[in-house]
Amino acid sequence: MKLTDNVLRSFRVAKVFRENSDKINCFDFSSNGETVISSSDDDSIVLYDCQEGKPKRTLYSKKYGVDLIRYTHAANTVVYSSNKIDDTIRYLSLHDNKYIRYFPGHNKRVVALSMSPVDDTFISGSLDKTIRLWDLRSPNCQGLMHLQGKPVCSFDPEGLIFAAGVNSEMVKLYDLRSFDKGPFATFKLPYERACEWTGLKFSNDGKLILVSTNGGTLRLLDAFKGAVLHSFGGYNNSKGVILEASFTPDSQFIMIGSEDGKIHVWNAESGMKVALLDGKHTGPITCLQFNPKFMTFASACSNMAFWLPTIDD
After folding, report:
1. How far apart are CA 86 and CA 72, in angstroms?
2. Separation between Cα atoms, residue 215 and residue 193, nearest integer Å
3. How far is residue 50's CA from residue 57's CA, in Å, rounded to a whole number?
4. Which of 35, 57, 135, 237 is the most exposed place for a label (fewest CB within 10 A)?
5. What is the rounded average pLDDT for all residues in the chain?
6. How confident is residue 149, by pLDDT bands cut at 50, 70 and 90?
7. CA-CA distance, 265 to 235, in Å (whole number)?
8. What is the pLDDT of residues 224-263, one digit of tens each?
9. Which residues contact 73 (CB under 8 A, 6 or more apart)?
10. CA 102 to each of CA 26, 70, 163, 203, 267: distance values in angstroms, whole numbers, following the listed order
11. How many Cβ atoms sit within 10 Å of the Cβ of residue 75?
12. How are the residues of the chain apportioned to helix, strand and coil, as percentages rounded to the nearest 5?
């Protein structure tokens, strides 16, 4: 089944889970699409089975809190950042709920975490104005970049380069093998005083970069030239909430939630809005991602919702 405007417009909430007492700050699908794992401001980690459509288990990180949770490539393991007392990144085995390794180094809150799509490398960005490069097999930082402001960062789909959004006005592209030589490309965007950049993602085909903000605008860039292809607005975000924006797996559409529980979908090529979906969320939709393998997506406030299409196009 192919994603089209009509199929997207037909999506409805199939299941709602009320496992959390506070907002879900992040979730991540496994690469096979069979599970999704969430982190919440209530200090819990909830693992869901996407095929059966039910929560499987809940773990807690009471002391440190939990944010920016990401699956690694090893089965049943995740990395995540703290949102409480400590800025160390933790590598957790879900199998026996034990920490495998700690990654100390940042001295302010970690605000970006991206796992390489191909190996055990990951990058983290922090309010300490640095990006650090790590390997899951070693607690020592493998590389360090000092920047001029708060960073957002992400790997490209091949895992060869990563992009850093700096100070809400520049995107810098680094080659992973020689990032210490500095960026090989820098794109300067018009500075917007009204909002800060909160996220950066590549499309799966590697051709596009999506920059999300804590205002009412998303920007879509050409990943090679840095030109702004489209700016997307018209969704509600008056309180400066961090709302996650995502590509669909085919790189054809862009989605974001809003503070009023609605989901807006645009065509990446034309820039036209193709769908407005009502998730009946009780709070702002802070997290939104399409399943990488199955025709379903998830959205979250303090509740988690699984969506399914209601037509076969």
Report:
1. 21
2. 10
3. 13
4. 57
5. 93
6. confident
7. 10
8. 999 999 999 988 888 888 899 999 999 999 999 999 899 9
9. 31, 115, 119, 120
10. 20, 15, 24, 30, 41
11. 11
12. 5, 50, 45
